[in-house]
Amino acid sequence: MKEKEPHAGKMVKAELKRQGRTITWLAKQFGGTRENMYKVLNKSWIKSESLVKISLIMDYNFFQNYSEWFEDNRNRT
How many folded domains does the chain comprise? Predict the structure, then answer.
């Protein structure tokens, strides 16, 4: 059975916490509002363009999580 796909918003929130940063900080770096960033991070998916920008801002490759999930689940049915 396939494992559930990673939740992008939860991954970003966890990394923010690990780095000791806030959603407000990320929103400012991203060029948006805190309210909009909360909306983005409460979703299980984030647009690729936004996730690239967040990855660069936070210096963390969130796409690696998806690659690992893919490799772990590619042959499962």
Answer: 1
